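--- STAGE predict ---
source: upstream dedup step, 1 unique chain passed
mode: sequence only
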Amino acid sequence: MATMFPCPSCGGQLKFSPTNMQMVCNSCGQNVSPWEYKANNIDNETGIDTKIYTCPNCAGEIQLIDNDGMEFCPYCGTQTTMQEHFSHAGTPKYILPFFLDKRDARDKYINEVKNIHFVPDGLNIDENIDKLVGLYTPYFLYEYSIKDNVSFVGEQTTESGDYEITKESRFNVNLDVDAMKVPFDGSQTFDDNVSGAINPFPLKELQEFSPNFLAGFFVENSTVDKEIYLQDSLDEARNDLTEKVKARANGYHINKSEDSSIAAKIEKDLKYQGCEGAYLPVYFMTTRDSDRVAYAVINGASGTVYSDMPIDKRKMYGTAIVISIAIFVILFLSSFIFSFSYRIKNLCGFAALVSSFIAYYGATIADSVYRRDNHLDDKGYFKSNDAVTNNKVKPAKKKVKKKEAKTQSMKATLSGVGAVVLFLLFKGYALILAFIFYVIENGRTILGIAGTILMVVVYIASFVFIIKGFRAVHGGRKKVLILGSLGWLAALIIRLVDLPNDVIYYSALLIVFGIIVVSIDSIVGEYNRLATHPSPQFLKKGGKLENAKN
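--- STAGE serialize ---
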């Protein structure tokens, strides 16, 4: 089949190169300007002709307008020959070309994950990273304008001796914005939270759509109703402009009343100008993990990275065992050097607190997994406003700042380091706190009372964590919640029952700490579900992360 972008010199295939912003011939190397190149039979007034590749494993679809084939699915990561058919699709008004080539995107990803501990085998090997796919993703650009004068009062408080002096100052800010574009992804398969994490795009670099920029890249067309994000775009425009107005306060504090007044005035005077479509560039990589997938998404213009990063339990426990042994030896020797022993009743209190926290934290993660798997924070998945309302989907969250994007990404919920700290410090601090409680309980009377109060607070706190856990889990899996609750209940029983001797006490506590270890293992497993996504269409299941090596 002849290429749709023939080189004017040799007839070879032209592909758009982000490195020099030119179309480059694969055969003779000639550069051709994408703004000047004219190709026949690619687009017309109603749209462009594309080839649609459908994955036989997950039913995911991706489009291409030239004659390169697909040997693996970018959505579910399966090595497969994708089925091909043709389509005539409409074109957007704008396109933002790729500014990063594949090598740049690869370097951005490696730099992002190189310092993350316990990365599963297969996520960072070269062969898997080479599967990065350059994909033009459909976005809606909601356009707003405003011409307004916003007035507000700021406060500045200083101290002079024993007095506080509050100074008020009135600010007047002129807003004159002709065409503020607010982007929201129009893809059903692109999760709103992921698209928000790689914002912003440099929209000032938008170009009038030309199919020449698509040469060598893949395309996804929108199947989402553009009205679905209309209210969200208004909220986003209002919030952005509100922050810009408040930035003119020159260090003065703005109270909540003034803040609300600024936002209300801006929202009242904002004028909606309409919505246009655009293709925005992303690099996309998928790795299978059983029936789930780990995504890495790189903004093809700015280089901002979003990465799902599950934890390799084998690597985590290997490190945990070594450090745990070192902590145990240090504390064991300290007990001889400083001549103290551990009160077993205090260990019960600590075990109850740890177990209850695991129950609560595991419940919150399970609820997050449930919401993600059912797309309850992803409006685009449901395509229309009616479906969004019926499924009680939360408003979309977009334009996340870079630091906040890392916080909201899955590895921030429970990073590899956090998992080890969770595993180690629970056990290490059990001995440390037992020592502190011992000193308190064997000190003077007033310290003994303080120690009793502290233990009462510990047990009350553990009870509160259990209650919060049952309230937080909602539709999520309850495995961690149940394990943590069992550990908590067992610790309470051991504390209340008078056992014959310390050997039985320690044996019972070993069972409790065994439950804690199993709970931590389960909470890491639940996090790994949170750090991955269900396959896009759920048609077939199977495979492991090691498939990335095949």
